[in-house]
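Protein in question reproduced for absentees:

***
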Amino acid sequence: MSNVTFPNFFPWLPQSVDERFNNGWTFGNLVVNLGNSRAPEVEREVVSQHSYGRQLGRLTDAVVALAKQAGATADPAVEPLIQLAKEIDAIKAKTRRRRCDELLDELKALKRSNPRQWTELVKAVGS
């Protein structure tokens, strides 16, 4: 990347600006760049394919499954993780219900506003 040079219309502005002002990336308060990652480009690629939420969810599911298998669900170190997993599952269920309600409202509106398109949709779905 190159520097961008501004005409000297505004003397208080810097004469050039480095376009790479954010050469890392952020996730919440986490900033990944060359200073805290040996391979930030790899991390960017991984997160583009598998979000941190998905990664943490899979790890949580695995730890909870192993704890259940080992009979260690009452372990004070494991209990908070199991509770967290239950809360996350409840949030996911609530979100799914909300999305289903929204879809139902959209479908009802489509049926009222455009019966022809509604009929085509029902045929495509294979009611």
Remarks:
- The beta strands are 3-5, 16-18, 25-27, 30-32.
- Residues 79-113 form the longest helix (35 residues).
- The longest strand covers residues 3-5.
